[in-house]
Design goal:
Layout: E1 2-8, H1 18-24, H2 29-37, E2 42-44, E3 47-48, E4 60-66, E5 82-86, E6 90-95, H3 112-121, E7 140-146, H4 149-160, E8 165-173, E9 179-183, E10 186-188, E11 196-198, E12 207-215, E13 219-226, H5 233-240, E14 263-271, E15 278-282
C-alpha cells in the first residue's frame, strides 16, 4: 500500500524539525524509522530531507508511506466482503456472522482477513491487515480496517483514548431495567483460553452502558455502549446481571432462538485519522436478529 501525505507548514511550526512535526501528527517512532529507511520517505520542497531538518513557514513536507509486502500469514481467498466505506486511509466493513476476523490454527482460510487480502490481491496492491475494533466470530456489523501504518497508529491511539464511539445492539433473555451501567472487572477463567468471568481480584476494568429499546416480555433489544473493550465484555456483563445474550452457546447454552450470540456492531462514530473529518456509520440490525416484531 502506497500513500503520499502533503503538509504545508504554517507559522506555528516554523523552526520545528521534521521529526517533532511528525510526532505531533501521530507518527510513531516505528513509522518514523520506516520513513527514514524508505527512499524518498521524507521530502521537503521536492528534496529528500532528514528528521532533523528545520521546517519554515510555507514549506511543503511530503511523506511517502510505502509498504511493498502483504501480511505474510494471510492467504488470499475469494470470500464475500461487504464494504460500507473505503478511501485511501481506511475501510469500514459490515462483517457477517460465522466469520472470524483473523486466521487461527483451526481456521486458516475462511476469515475476514482472507477475503480482504483477496480484494487487494485482485488490484495487485500490497496490503497489511490491520483491524482496529475486533469482533467475535459470530458478532455481526461494523468494523474499521486501517489501510496503512499511519492510519493504524492514529486509530489505535483513538481506541485507547476512547475517541471511537461504538454502539452495539443486543438481544438478551428477559426484561432489563430501562437503562443501566455495569462496572465489573473481567478476567480469564482459570484453565480456559476462551472463557471469561467477572474477576474482582485480578480482572481488568470493564464498563458497559445499556438502554432498553424494546421487549416482548421474554426477549429484550438493548442499545449498548462500551467505555472499555475487554474480550467478551458485553456477553459477560449481561450474563452477570441475569440477562445473557440470546444464542450465546458459551455463556447461555440453553438458549435456542438463534444459532449465534445476538450481538451486532450497529454504529461507529469517530474522527477520520488523516482528514479529521467527522465519520458516522450505521448498519441496520441483521435479519436473524429481528425477533421482536
Amino acid at each position: 500500500m502506497y500513500r503520499t501525505l502533503n503538509y504545508t507548514i504554517h507559522s506555528s511550526h516554523s523552526n520545528t524539525n521534521v521529526g517533532q512535526f511528525l510526532r505531533e501528527n501521530g507518527y510513531s517512532h516505528t513509522i518514523i524509522v520506516h520513513l527514514k529507511k524508505t527512499q524518498d520517505g521524507i521530502i521537503v520542497n521536492g528534496l529528500r530531507a532528514y528528521t532533523n531538518h528545520i521546517l519554515k513557514e510555507g514549506d511543503l513536507l511530503s511523506i511517502n508511506i510505502k509498504e511493498s509486502v502483504s501480511s505474510p500469514n494471510i492467504v488470499a481467498v475469494a470470500l464475500p466482503i461487504d464494504i460500507v466505506y473505503e478511501d485511501a486511509d481506511i475501510m469500514v466493513l459490515n462483517k457477517a456472522a460465522d466469520m472470524p476476523v483473523h486466521p487461527s490454527q483451526n481456521n486458516y482460510d475462511n476469515t475476514l482477513a482472507n477475503g480482504v487480502a483477496h480484494y487487494y490481491a485482485t488490484q495487485k496492491t500490497p496490503y497489511v491487515f490491520r483491524c482496529i475494533n475486533r469482533l467475535d466470530r459470530d458478532t455481526t456489523g461494523l468494523l474499521i480496517l486501517a489501510k496503512h501504518m499511519l492510519s493504524a497508529a492514529i486509530l489505535s491511539q483513538m481506541m485507547k483514548d476512547r475517541q471511537i464511539e461504538r454502539t452495539y445492539l443486543a438481544l438478551v433473555d428477559g426484561v432489563t431495567d430501562t437503562n443501566g451501567t455495569i462496572n465489573a472487572p473481567i478476567g480469564r477463567l482459570e484453565g480456559s483460553t476462551i472463557e471469561r468471568i467477572i474477576d474482582n481480584t485480578n480482572g481488568e476494568s470493564a464498563i458497559t452502558h445499556y438502554k432498553l429499546l424494546k421487549t416482548n416480555g421474554d426477549v429484550s433489544l438493548l442499545e449498548v455502549h462500551l467505555d472499555t473493550g475487554r474480550t467478551h465484555q458485553i456477553r459477560i456483563h449481561m450474563k452477570s446481571i441475569g440477562h445473557p445474550l440470546i444464542g450465546d452457546s458459551l455463556y447461555n447454552p440453553t438458549s435456542s432462538l438463534l444459532n449465534r450470540q445476538a450481538l451486532h456492531s450497529h454504529r461507529l462514530k469517530f474522527c477520520h485519522p488523516i482528514t479529521k473529518k467527522a465519520m458516522d456509520f450505521v448498519c441496520p440490525l441483521p435479519n436473524d436478529m429481528n425477533l421482536l416484531k
